[in-house]
């Protein structure tokens, strides 16, 4: 049963459909829903009600779209805590490169008295969260208000309004802890994404944000540190400075010290002080080096979980070092957490290109029938970067490109691309199909792999090589041994220091059998091959390469691109993938996060090659920084009868 409940959920008003079981339904099949038709036009009309039978699709594509139209784009506003203000460096213990960040933005010590950040939330007495009724439910994704339960996104949307309404509403408090808050990822990506969500109304006004690391800092140090990376959106900077202040006021620092047990006890105590008595949900973003993961998660599990709501942990890639270490990590995580609490994040999966794989295939009639070996000759997944390892040298030297990029991003892309149609868009249905594909991928052999490493000759002092054998380039051909894909080469290429920055999935179709135009086509591979291209970089696009007649007398064919260029069609800033994925975590949606069996299957594909490379000290082919990469990649393509399509 669908029942539209109209309520002033936020300032523009949104409507949701309640299922007969009381939950807001975001997970029904979208392409059957008439709501889609209602929803899209309304997305462009700020006044219109957004009808949501609140399917996952409607949320993602209509809700998100509305949000994008209404909320996003980047411009730095005038604000209290931003850069550009005078600052005096802070003296802190354990100085490292990060101390630079404390010096640039305003630190509390450099503030004028009237600008000092109030200790609003961290001084817990001032702002105790309102008390809402919370009933623990076995399904941790459901928050009960006694009158029916709500899924998480509705909980969030509701959060905005019900926090202003009297207690007795349906909202429990939310605390988000960023463990490793002083690290590069936290500063560059996680806090900015959290602020963007806060600014756009996707976090409750009284969310608690906690930064945690071993350093000896104060709340204000942390605020100064992260303030320099927070941004506002171009066309939505209204009140952004105030929002930023409010966000920073809700951000506290916990010093973990050398003993995470004490640190986690302290984190728990600080969270408890601002949480509601009846309902408290917590997210822990573990932005720490892999080596620290076991200790941190174990202490967190034992000392920082709440029993008054759900606890979710976000784990950063690469989820181990090889099959053995990854399995150990998984075992240890599963000894402390349930699978559904674990979100293994790879931010590249939060990009539109990834969701478009399934949207294109399953919501259009024209593609799915072609999605198999009978029509597709090869698939290429290309992720080339024009920059080097830069500040992440130490990490990269240890892990290399296979562990950093291939193990998660590229294999996940292939899994989503090649999976059988899932029963529904429910997380587990999708993950069930992904793991089947991963397990059907033939184990890689060294002969089907090309390793490369860039050298930089642009420096005056001669050629600069890395000190280790760490690959900065990887190309390989994978085969999926199942009925749909038997014999189709999946070409993968990931590299740094290459001539062009490109992130693409290219699907090349077979030649037309008995082609009536073969004389016009001749030996042109371009004319002989239709191609579907999903592109993230340089310009987000979906392209289909088809043949057409060149105007004029006579019959000459041309290969042209039917193109959907996002920046031309959608004139708006696209949310960062961390925003997308963080919202999914808040939402309890883990279809873009790897389940334990998926991670194991991915490592099983790569580990034999990784072991061989390490054991035999296989030397990568050296290529020039800013060039096209190792020539070996071309031979590899030729061996499998495929030409790389990104040249
Ligand atoms: N940087 C990036 O662009 C990306 C990073 N990742 C992953 O994200 C994670 C973090 O990366 P990154 O930010 O670059 O790493 P950094 O080394 O820059 O930061 C690590 C953070 O963790 C803290 N930390 C280290 N050890 C411990 C410990 N034992 N207990 C508590 N806190 C600890 C550090 O602070 P302190 O030393 O004071 O405790 C610091 O705040 C890694 O797993 C990485 O693989 C994934 C994708 C991209
Ligand atoms: O996770 C990673 O991604 C970045 C690329 O991120 P993007 O946001 O620029 O797409 C990559 O450079 C890095 O090596 C890798 O760890």
Structure, explained:
The chain has 647 residues and is an alpha/beta fold. It has 3 domains: 69 residues, no CATH class; 202 residues, Rossmann fold (3-Layer(aba) Sandwich), CATH 3.40.50; 291 residues, Dihydrodipicolinate Reductase, domain 2. The strands form 5 sheets. It has a 9-stranded mixed beta sheet with strand order 21-20-19-18-14-17-16-15-22, sandwiched between helices. The protein has a 6-stranded parallel beta sheet with strand order 10-8-7-11-12-13, sandwiched between helices. The site of NADPH dihydro-nicotinamide-adenine-dinucleotide phosphate has 23 residues, from helix 5 and helix 9.
Summarize the structure.
The protein contains 19 helices and 22 strands.
Core attributes:
647 residues, Rossmann fold, Dihydrodipicolinate Reductase, domain 2, nine-stranded mixed sheet, 19 helices, 34% helix, globular, disordered N terminus, binds NADPH dihydro-nicotinamide-adenine-dinucleotide phosphate, binds ligand LXAUTJHC
């Amino acid at each position: 049963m669908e029942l539209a409940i109209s309520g002033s959920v936020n300032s523009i008003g949104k409507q949701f459909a309640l299922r007969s079981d009381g939950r807001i339904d975001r997970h029904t099949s979208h392409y059957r829903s008439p709501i889609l038709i209602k929803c899209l036009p309304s997305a462009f009309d700020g006044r219109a009600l957004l009808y949501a039978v609140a399917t996952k699709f409607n949320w993602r594509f209509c809700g998100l779209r509305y949000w994008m139209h209404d909320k996003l784009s980047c411009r730095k506003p005038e604000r209290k805590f931003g850069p550009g203000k005078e600052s005096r460096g802070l003296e802190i213990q354990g100085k490292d490169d990060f101390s630079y960040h404390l010096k640039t933005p305003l630190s509390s010590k450099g503030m004028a008295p009237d600008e000092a950040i109030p200790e609003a939330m961290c001084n817990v007495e001032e702002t105790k969260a309102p008390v809402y009724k919370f009933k623990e439910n076995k399904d941790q994704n459901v928050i009960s208000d006694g009158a029916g339960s709500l899924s998480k996104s509705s909980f969030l949307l509701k959060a905005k309004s019900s926090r202003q309404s009297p207690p007795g509403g349906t909202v429990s408090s939310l605390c988000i802890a960023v463990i490793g808050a002083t690290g590069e990822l936290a500063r560059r990506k996680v806090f900015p994404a959290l602020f963007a969500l806060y600014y756009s109304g996707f976090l409750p006004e009284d969310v608690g944000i906690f930064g945690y690391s071993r350093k000896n800092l104060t709340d204000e140090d942390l605020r100064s540190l992260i303030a320099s990376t927070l941004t506002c959106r171009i066309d939505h900077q209204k009140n952004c400075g105030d929002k930023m202040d409010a966000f920073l006021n809700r951000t506290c620092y916990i010093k973990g010290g050398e003993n995470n047990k004490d640190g986690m006890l302290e984190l728990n105590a600080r969270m408890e002080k601002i949480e509601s008595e009846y309902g408290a949900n917590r997210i822990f973003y573990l932005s720490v080096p892999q080596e620290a993961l076991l200790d941190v998660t174990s202490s967190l599990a034992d000392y920082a979980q709440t029993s008054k709501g759900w606890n979710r942990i976000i784990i950063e890639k690469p989820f181990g070092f090889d099959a053995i270490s990854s399995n150990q990590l998984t075992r240890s995580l599963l000894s402390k957490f349930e699978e559904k609490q674990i979100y293994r994040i790879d931010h590249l999966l939060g990009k539109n290109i990834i969701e478009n794989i399934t949207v294109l295939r399953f919501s259009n009639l024209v593609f799915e029938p072609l999605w198999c070996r009978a029509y597709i000759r090869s698939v290429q997944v290309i992720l080339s970067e024009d920059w080097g390892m830069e500040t992440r040298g130490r990490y990269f030297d240890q892990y290399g490109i296979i562990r950093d990029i291939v193990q998660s991003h590229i294999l996940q892309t292939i899994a989503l691309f090649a999976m059988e149609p899932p029963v529904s868009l429910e997380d587990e249905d999708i993950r069930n199909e992904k793991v089947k594909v991963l397990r059907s991928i033939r184990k890689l052999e060294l002969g089907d792999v090309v390793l490369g490493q860039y050298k930089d000759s642009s420096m005056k002092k001669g050629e600069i090589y890395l000190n280790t054998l760490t690959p900065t380039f990887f190309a390989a051909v994978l085969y999926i041994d199942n009925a749909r894909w038997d014999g189709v080469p999946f070409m993968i290429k990931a590299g740094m220091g290459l001539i062009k920055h490109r992130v693409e999935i290219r699907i090349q179709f077979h030649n037309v059998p008995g082609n009536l135009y073969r004389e016009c086509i001749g030996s042109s591979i371009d004319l002989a091959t239709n191609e579907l291209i999903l592109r993230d970089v340089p310009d987000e696009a979906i392209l289909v390469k088809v043949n057409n007649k060149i105007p004029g007398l006579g019959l000459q064919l041309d290969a042209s691109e039917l193109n959907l260029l996002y920046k031309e069609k959608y004139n708006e800033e696209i949310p960062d993938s961390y925003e997308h994925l963080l919202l999914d975590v808040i939402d309890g949606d883990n279809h873009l996060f790897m389940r334990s069996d998926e991670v194991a299957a991915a490592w099983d594909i790569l580990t034999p090659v990784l072991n061989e490379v390490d054991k035999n000290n296989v030397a990568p082919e050296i290529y020039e920084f800013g060039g096209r990469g190792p020539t070996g990649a071309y031979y590899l393509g030729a061996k499998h009868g495929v030409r790389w399509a990104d040249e």
